[in-house]
């Protein structure tokens, strides 16, 4: 058997990067609870028809990016979720979550898409998403955008831009779609292969092309905003008014469309220039028709999802991230016979909230005091706790500061642990 490696586009997350992810997730959890969004965890595997609905437009994700397979035992068509909104809505319907009114939910977890792997684009990637189910007002669209804006501020990201658009309602989209197809048909010679393929399946998506040769054509194409009726415009204006009142800067991008087919009215993206072509860090919008598409009764909803990998890349390049809690102490132990006493002491320290790493024996024994101090230093701990023969005999520990030369070394009785333990706790 050859060397086993991870699947292409599916990455291991290792320390210290994993600490950065934990730092970010803790920030998000805290934020979500202040906005009264509750956590939901849906399965990673869903039935394929949840995503392939036969309704709506063909999207790239459904058409060619999904990991689909059959249940080996009963042949059920299954799919690794490419996104979580459909699963959240399925769960809301299955458990009648909205019986007593709207629900605000958030999720975190891996999604799977068979894309061409590149920086910021993976085949397994983590998303965090927020969904407000059962609310139709523009103030909820605004709340979600304000929540994301607060998140950028709380992690110290400054150069994230907000782009907004309104996709209107189905009849408005249909009128625009017809105008769009007619327009692109008139200019068929300029369309690339992708655009020609999408012309009748998803012409809106042509507007999202990254092909520089088509930019002129796309810029002059009929704009959906010009096809919106009064109600759609009024929803859009209410949202803009709230954002303005909260000093949230935005630009209206009439060409902004989303990868999934279920959006209507508000769509938005937070983007940055600092991640190259994978510059969208968070995206979302309103999806008032998804409940019906999944067999439920008409229920308005709005949400967003952010790409954890991209946000972290951004936070890392900006030097914003935490690196996880620093270690308080490293226990230096010279005799294996001292282990029972050392372990029970460390157990009490950890119960008192102190983080402590213990030196462990290798085949060569415990190693010299000098080599153990080297390890202690490399661990990043603020104190070395020395359990040498003299200390063990006297039922004491020597506490030696490793980072601050001004702090004196002390000896403490193990019996007094409750008094000295708190002094080890890092204040950061
Ligand atoms: P893109 O245009 O970049 O392909 P998308 O429209 O497919 O994005 P969504 O389905 O709305 O994106 O997902 C929301 C967010 O999840 C994106 O803005 C991005 O930050 C992240 N994301 C999407 N696909 C990937 C991926 N393959 N790898 C890493 N992050 C991703
Ligand atoms: Mg995509």
Automatic annotation (TrEMBL):
Catalytic EC class:
ligase
Tell me if Methyltransferase is a UniProt keyword of this record. Answer: no
Q: Does the keyword Nucleotide-binding apply?
A: yes
Q: Where in the cell?
A: Cytoplasm
Q: What InterPro entries does this protein map onto?
A: aa-tRNA-synth_II, aa-tRNA-synth_II/BPL/LPL, Anticodon-bd, Anticodon-bd_dom_sf, His-tRNA-ligase, HisRS-like_core, HisRS/HisZ
Q: Which reactions is this enzyme annotated as catalysing?
A: tRNA(His) + L-histidine + ATP = L-histidyl-tRNA(His) + AMP + diphosphate + H(+)
Give the Pfam families listed for this entry.
HGTP_anticodon (PF03129), tRNA-synt_His (PF13393)
Q: Which GO MF terms does the UniProt record name?
A: ATP binding; histidine-tRNA ligase activity
What EC number(s) does the entry state?
6.1.1.21
| Residues covered by the Aminoacyl-transfer RNA synthetases class-II family profile domain | 1-326
Q: Which GO terms describe its biological process?
A: histidyl-tRNA aminoacylation
Q: What is this protein called?
A: Histidine--tRNA ligase
Record organism: Rhodoferax fermentans
| Taxonomic path | Bacteria, Pseudomonadati, Pseudomonadota, Betaproteobacteria, Burkholderiales
């Amino acid at each position: 058997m050859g060397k086993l490696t991870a699947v292409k586009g599916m990455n291991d997350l290792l320390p210290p990067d994993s600490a950065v992810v934990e730092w970010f997730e803790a920030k998000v959890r805290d934020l979500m609870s202040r906005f009264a969004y509750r956590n939901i965890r849906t399965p990673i595997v869903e039935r394929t028809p949840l995503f392939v609905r036969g309704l709506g437009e063909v999207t790239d994700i459904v058409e060619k990016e999904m990991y689909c397979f059959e249940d080996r035992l009963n042949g059920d068509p299954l799919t690794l979720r490419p996104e979580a909104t459909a699963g959240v809505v399925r769960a809301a319907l299955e458990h009648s979550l909205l019986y007593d009114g709207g629900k605000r939910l958030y999720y975190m977890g891996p999604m799977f898409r068979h894309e061409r792997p590149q920086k910021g684009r993976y085949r397994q990637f983590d998303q965090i998403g927020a969904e407000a189910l059962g609310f139709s007002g523009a103030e909820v669209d605004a709340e979600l955008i304000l929540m994301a804006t607060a998140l950028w501020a709380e992690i110290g990201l400054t150069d994230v831009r907000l782009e907004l658009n309104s996709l209107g309602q189905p009849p408005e989209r249909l009128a625009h779609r017809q105008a769009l197809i007619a327009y692109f048909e008139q200019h068929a010679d300029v369309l690339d292969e992708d655009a020609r393929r999408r012309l009748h399946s998803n012409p809106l998506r042509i507007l999202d092309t990254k092909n520089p040769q088509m930019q002129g054509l796309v810029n002059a194409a009929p704009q959906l905003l010009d096809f919106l009726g009064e109600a759609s415009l009024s929803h859009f204006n209410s949202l803009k008014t709230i954002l303005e009142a909260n000093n949230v800067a935005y630009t209206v991008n009439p060409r902004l469309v989303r990868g999934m087919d279920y959006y209507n009215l508000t769509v938005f993206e937070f983007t940055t220039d600092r991640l190259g072509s994978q510059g969208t860090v968070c995206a979302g919008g309103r999806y008032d028709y998804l409940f019906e598409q999944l067999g439920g009764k008409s229920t308005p909803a709005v949400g967003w999802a952010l790409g954890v990998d991209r946000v972290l890349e951004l936070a890392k390049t900006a030097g914003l991230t935490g690196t996880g809690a620093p270690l308080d102490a490293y226990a230096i132990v010279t005799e294996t016979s001292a282990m029972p006493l050392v372990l029970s002491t460390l157990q009490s320290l950890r119960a008192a909230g102190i983080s402590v790493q213990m030196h462990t024996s290798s085949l060569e024994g415990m190693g010299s005091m000098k080599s153990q101090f080297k390890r202690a230093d490399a661990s990043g701990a603020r104190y070395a706790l020395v359990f040498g023969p003299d200390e063990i005999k006297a039922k004491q520990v020597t506490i030696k500061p490793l980072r601050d030369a001004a702090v004196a070394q002390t000896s403490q009785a193990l019996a007094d642990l409750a008094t000295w333990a708190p002094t080890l706790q890092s204040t950061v």
